[in-house]
Amino acid sequence: MLIEMKLWLTENEPLISAIVGVITLLAAAWGVLSLHYFDQSASTSKNDQNPADETAGEPASSSIRFRQAPRKLINLGISHRSQVEQMVASRTLNAIIFALLSLSLVWVVAGLVKSGLVVLTILNGITFLCGLLVLVLHASHHFTLARWMMILLAGGYWCVVQLTVGGMWGIEYFLIVLCLIPVLMFERHEVRQRTLCMLMLLMFLIVQLLLGRVYEGGLLIMGESTLKIGYVVNALVLCLIVFGLISYYSNYSMRSFYAMKNERERADTLINSVFPREVAEQIRERAPTVASYSDEAVVIFISLEGFDALYSRMTASQLVELMSKIFIRFDELLEQHGVEKINLLGTHYVAASGIFSGKPSHAAVARFALDATAAVAEFSKETHERFTLRAGVSAGEVVSGVIGEARPCLDIWGETVELAAAMQGAALGNTVVVSAQAYSRLRDDFEFAEMSASVDNAYILLREKRPATAAGGTL
User: InterPro entries, alphabetically (predicted)?
Assistant: First the structure.
């Protein structure tokens, strides 16, 4: 029976090869159209979810499409909801399918050109059709079904080709690629599926070894020249597959590394801009509790007034831009005087010295307060709006720390903080009021005015004293 089938195939080889070739080309056209349909559907779905996508609706040139084609092919079946491990598994599936499709298509074309390969032509034509079906299933997000069909197809193809042509074609080396399947195509938690895949591949290997003993030289008898050509072709294809997989995952790993490095740098920049350097280091080191105690610190509370009248006649973006300008100026003054920003809530601004930087500088906080008052007055003149500043300063013990996990916030507590807030509440427009504790540390370098009798132990900061000349005058 087997001999009669061989004779029939040999006699009708041109017709059979032509039929298989035509069917393969038609299937390839069907696969391209199907994949294009799924790609268009995925793009439409993505644009519906993100109408502001910059690439939506833009005509793409043929060169851009050509450059994007490999990326689209390797990303088939991947959606914006896919996790990292699922993306790796999907791309591995696509890479192996494309390798199998390329190999089978090469041998279908070879069967049309060279006589004596009709059995391989039929086998590779069937493999090509099944590979396209797997690819279309994957593109339509039937990932589990496509994955197991691909495992059966790859293992069966390897086993049948080994049985058909024997072990002289280099087909046995494709076992290397098969061994990569369970490693790359399954996620870490899919232990059962990975084990089952390895058992299936082991089964294919045992079946091939058993059948190889029965048909030691293969079912087809090939000439020496054909065997050499086939061996070289299979060796080249295997090298290309392994090189492609290693190159892809190497480049992917490097891109992921640099992306992670850039994200870490952006996160560090954000943390450094929000928190003082000492606090930022503790947050990066994931300290369980970020807290400190200062027996001597200077705290300043600032409240800006005049924005309430703008809510009804300005848009939100205009108002935020206006507020941002003055608070950016405050940040610049903090940097200039070496004072530490604590937090910002609405129009209330809190800063301090001596909490994280060791010894406090009472004079630096006082200079910052005076410069901030001048900045608000200048800002009012530039915008022709009536903005005023009320500030309160106090000195003493302070407890500080970071509270919250999802949105951590730096804050300070203690009687010194409450006293500074009380001084700010007692201040009038464009004045800085200091407590008795702060006054005792600043009176030698700054001029003050006493508050009204209704407020005890509070002083208005006026200006910094000018140093005396050698003759006793002032500069």
Answer: A/G_cyclase (IPR001054), Nucleotide_cyclase (IPR029787)
Picking from 405, 398, 402, the residue whose alpha carbon sits closest to that of residue 420 is 398
Q: Looking at the structure, tell me whether residues 185 and 42 fall in a common domain.
A: yes
H/E element, 33:
helix 13-49
Taken as a whole, the chain contains a residue count of 475
Q: Are residues 91 and 191 in the same domain?
A: yes
> What's the pTM?
0.52
Contact 185, 147 (CB under 8 A): yes
Q: 226 and 315 in one domain?
A: no
Q: 469 lies in a domain?
A: no
Cα separation, 301 vs 55, in Å, equals: 48
Structural domain harbouring 65: 2-47+61-263
What number is the average pLDDT over the span 4-11?
A: 55
Cα 99–chain centre separation: 29
Segment 363-397, tens digit of pLDDT:
999 999 999 999 999 988 888 888 889 999 999 99
Clarify whether residues 127 and 254 are in a common domain.
yes
- pLDDT (tens digit per residue) in 208-219: 777 666 655 555
Say if 173 falls within a structural domain.
Answer: yes
| First-to-final CA distance of the chain | 119
Distance CA 21, CA 173 (A): 27
Q: How many domains does the chain have?
A: 2
CATH number of 369's domain? 3.30.70.1230
- Report yes or no on 211 lying in a domain: yes
The number of helix segments (H) and strand segments (E) in the chain equals 14, 8
Identify whether the C-beta of residue 161 lies closer than 8 Å to the C-beta of residue 98. Answer: no
The H-assigned helical ranges of 185-223 are 191-214
**Sequential DSSP letters for 121-186:** HHHHHHHHHHHHHHHHHHHTT-HHHHHHHHHHHHHHHHHHHHHHH-TTSSGGGGHHHHHHHHHHSS
Q: 361 lies in a domain? A: yes
The answer for 447, left when phi > 0, alpha when psi is -120 to 50, beta otherwise, is: beta
